[in-house]
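Reviewer 2 asked us to include a model.

Predict the structure of this chain.
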Amino acid sequence: MRNEQTQAVRAAGQRGATPLTLAIDVGGTGLKAGILTTDDRMIAGPDRTDTPHPSAPAAVMDALATIVQPLGKFARISVGFPGVVRAGRVITAPNLGTDVWHGYHLTDELTQRFGAPARLANDATVQGLGVIKGHDLECVITLGTGMGFALFEDGRPAPHLELSQHPVHGTKTYDHYIGNAALHAIGRKRWNRRVKRAIGFIATLTNYDTLYIGGGNAKNVQFDLPRNVHIVSNEAGITGGIRLWDKKLDGMFG
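Predicted model (structure tokens):
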């Protein structure tokens, strides 16, 4: 299988479907990576490994290397990260450890480690770029270790809001209210009731035209959704990475 993937990478380069992009999705429980062509095809991966715990930057970078190195050649890197990021630098990392990640220049480290220029965005933003239609006000939430959030107007990401850290019920943030720990603590039925309430709160807050729900726990949503709310593939957390290099978004992602 690995030989077939390597041959696919080389063939894509010969067909001119370059530059190839290494797309990385950093999660609180898992790290994923794949190689994308400019026409949105994944030709190697996605490969996955568990996120190390403790999740210090050096440990995460070493874990990424184990899944990136076998994938083949690439010319640039896109990464989705679960927290606030600006100009290639991590500001917060609620599910990895903000204290050890704050100020970490992730794009520089990726470039030094893998030898290619890198762009960085919040993971929900990357997921959204992989699924939005590019019209009107579109909202994306991801249900995983915590809850990711991104908002788009006519295809352009709005300034990032860390809604996951906002109180939604008493002192519980969205991360605590509908994150993975809550799902396992209260069971799927009660968790679904919470997700339904959260969707209502987000609808009131944003007045979105369309909402997309991704992330590893989206598969556990078991109630009838409004017509403008859709479950989307979790692979968009990787495939959306190609959009970080769109010329119309130049300057938005360090």
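The two ends are 34 Å apart (CA to CA). The first strand starts at residue 21 and ends at 26. We have added this to the supplementary material.
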